[in-house]
Design goal:
With 66 residues, the protein is mainly alpha-helical. Helices cover 73% and strands 0% of the residues. α3 crosses α4. The two termini are 31 Å apart.
């Protein structure tokens, strides 16, 4: 009973905010296939160009993924 707000939020996001035109884009971003390594390298380079804050961003991102 305490998590009724959680289920309501889930339904609101997945049923109320759904945009069909975003489905192929999200599928491509979720499973980039052969573009995975170049995308990760580009993302890493973009972070590293930001200096100290970029390195901190990479660390936070790595911890979030792990």
């Amino acid at each position: 009973m305490g998590h009724a707000w959680d289920a309501a939020l889930f339904r609101a996001v997945h049923l109320g905010w759904h945009q069909a035109w975003l489905d192929p884009i999200m599928r491509a971003l979720s499973s980039p296939g052969v573009f995975k390594i170049p995308l990760l390298a580009l993302l890493g380079a973009a972070f590293l160009l930001r200096g100290r804050r970029g390195r901190l961003g990479i660390l936070v991102l790595a911890l979030a993924i792990a």
